[in-house]
Amino acid sequence: MHANLSLLKSKSAKNKSSSQASISRFFTRQEGDKNANKSGRNSARPCLGAPGKVSSGRSRVEVYKGDAGGCCECELPHRGPTRRSETGPVKTTVSEPSLNHLKRKAAFSFSQAGGGTGKKSAPEAGVPNKRTRSIYTPLELQFMEIKEKHRDALLCVECGYKYRFFGDDAETAAKELNIFCHPDHNFMTASIPAHRLFVHVRRLVSKGYKVGVVKQTETTAIKASGATRSSLFTRELSALYTKSTLVGEDVNPLLKMGDLEEAEDVVQDSSSNYLMCVSESWGRQSKELVVQPSTGDLMVDCFKDGPSLSELESRVLKVQPVEILVPCDLSEGTERLLRNIALASVQTDDRIRIERRDSQHFEFGEAMKTVKDFYADPTRHCKEKDSYCPYVHLERPVISCLGAVIQYLTEFKLERVLLCTSSFSSSARPLFQTTGAVRGSLLWVLDHTQTPFGRRMMKKWVTQPLTSALEIQARQDAVAEILASGSTALPTVRTLLQRLPDLERGICSIYHKKCSTQEFYLISSVLARLSAELQTLLPAMQSQLCCSLLRGLLLETPSLLAPAQGFLRVLNESAAKKGSKTELFTDLSDFPAIQERKDEMQAVLAEILSHRTEIRQTLRNPSLDYVTVSGQEFLIEVKNSMSSTVPANWVKINSTKVVGRYHTPFIVGKYKRLQQLREQLVIDCGREWVNFLHRFGEHYYILRKGVCHLATLDCLFSLAQVAKDNNYCRPELSDGKQQIVIREGRHPVIDVLLGENDQYVPNDTGLQGDGKRAMIITGPNMGGKSSYIRQVALITIMAQMGSFVPARQASIGIMDGIYTRYSNHPASHIR
């Protein structure tokens, strides 16, 4: 023992005199490097812990083990306050083959903690040296192993009550989050509190980084009683986040929720976080697939582009994705265009993130295999009525994008949104922005919705006008009845839509099994409340409403939202709001594992409580009871003046000037067992919680349809409000006739911007297929020529989305496209 200690001290002295100089690409250190920086400190911090096994070998990696109390990087479990080893640090060595394996795996570099300036050459770094030693703590080795698998991600590693960054990740996090970064052992490190993880992850993601969250998968009490008690806590990558994949409890938690009104903004992020996948083939044919993982919306498109790539540029600027997925062998022109668009924003938070993938993922053969395997997998069952393989109806080029998107979203565990095949729709060029701001656009005029999911649907209506006369007529009938009806039910329904959280994102988060108990309770309680209140309005709606669209929406919605009530009934409201999964379920008949664990805990607790009788007899104190101090339970307080009555085998936990606090050997064993059961209960409850979310997810498509009905009602109320406020008229649809006849038409946007003080001058339009087919507009600059042309196009779009229009009278045929060309810009179209 003494020989081992003096050998370790000798090596420690050498480490002090040497430096934290160049750590080579393969993580080796040369002990005899005379050029090392002598101002560095010892890279290994002595700590107490269990002895490790020593293996033979000439080259060795020294690993220092320690306790789990957080005194060092080792984080090995404690043995108790009075049983800590007094032998000092213990050295574990790894044989040369293990070191060579580590060298082969390490293909990335980290920032050096000590700050030496010398670097080894490539040949020297790759050849083992007999005198070369690399000293890393177990946590550092664990981090390097995970980082090797996820080189493009910035990793947050859970270490007790905080999350830590290492190496280059720490320097990046310190710069972006404005936190302190300092050298510790072999790497630079920075840390953030665990309860602020969601704030900092969102900040890093908004700046364009891919962020990975690494969590501990073991607990202290269970590990201390297991066969691996002397090893490091296991950690795994639990989640990855980018701008388009911000779905999960880590980035959208409800930490405090006094009532539902306080938590209404939990999922209020209504921005369209679209992921756009772009690929191209010969003949300048491009294809795109746009998906929003947080809501399940998808759009597909395939188009031919010219040398200026105006079609692609137009789609990117109008859809405004937050992330674009492209192959690494993109053409130079397309690469330049996307890079310029991504860097166009002045603020980093607004920039589009470009994700480049291996071009093999975009090849048709590979993509087709991925798509077939994905939709043929029996574990990914879809209970949607019209569930079928969507690739049967997709164009061959689009399948290449779909395959790449499936592989990409699988990394984030968000691929299930692609199972909802009814979400696939053709892409249209959005009309909800003009110069980059919503104000002054057609969407700005029409959007008076009250819910986030209603606003998203209004965007769809504006960007995808209808071409079916029956569907347009149904929307117009609904708007007309809202305006003219004296029904008491309709104002009540619109009141119910106020101050709702984002139900669409909420149920999608539950479907991904990435929501917290607080968010689940909020979403399910709102769904249940809406179902109950709409149910009470059914008699009035059946007797007062005539429009088939309104009747269908309002009569179906209560039954579609009803499944939420059953899930809400088994939850403990107080525990759900606090995030306590161990007390979450009120009826444990459906959760036998939790019931069994709680019965075991109750039995152990009863034994500890009955042990008080023996303690009272030993200390001759009939009123003695257990106390809890600083989280330590079942403590026996004895005055220091009476310490002579304490048996010698009792374990002293802590003391003050007045009393000492002890555990009997019986309590030591039973308390340890109780802690193990408590931690196992947390694991069991977490597993049952995931199963609970899975059962809720079986109703996802029904609930999503109900929320879609609410969004449709919100949009219809909005269109009615706009028509009433601006004196719009109902356009007449002339199905089968090619005509645009408008009397006293007004530009919908300019009319609102001017207001009542300066009225817009109305204009007539008369175009007919069998008569006047063209008009030439002339006039001076700033005379309103372009505004007039836009006015005709916007009125046509409003008519075909089912809205009333700004005119005294209008008769418009069904159009399948609007073609525009300004100055020398290439022709473009809206369909």
UniProtKB/TrEMBL annotation:
Its main location: nucleus. It comes from the Eukaryota. GO terms for biological process: mismatch repair; mitotic recombination; somatic recombination of immunoglobulin gene segments. It is found in: Nucleus. This is DNA mismatch repair protein MSH3. Residues 1-22 have a biased composition (Low complexity). The gene is MSH3. One of its GO terms (molecular function) is mismatched DNA binding. Keywords: ATP-binding, DNA damage, DNA repair, DNA-binding, Nucleotide-binding, Nucleus. Component of the post-replicative DNA mismatch repair system (MMR). Residues 437-753 form the DNA mismatch repair protein MutS core domain. SMART domains: MUTSac (SM00534), MUTSd (SM00533). It comes from Denticeps clupeoides. The lineage of its organism: Eukaryota, Metazoa, Chordata, Craniata, Vertebrata. One of its GO terms (cellular component) is nucleus. Pfam families: MutS_I, MutS_II, MutS_III, MutS_IV, MutS_V. InterPro entries: DNA_mismatch_repair_MutS-lik_N (IPR007695), DNA_mismatch_repair_MutS/MSH (IPR017261), DNA_mismatch_repair_MutS_C (IPR000432), DNA_mismatch_repair_MutS_clamp (IPR007861), DNA_mismatch_repair_MutS_core (IPR007696), DNA_mismatch_repair_MutS_N (IPR016151), DNA_mismatch_repair_MutS_sf (IPR036187), DNA_mmatch_repair_MutS_con_dom (IPR007860). Residues 772-831 form the DNA mismatch repair proteins mutS family domain. Residues 1-60, 110-129 are annotated as: Disordered. Belongs to the DNA mismatch repair MutS family. MSH3 subfamily.
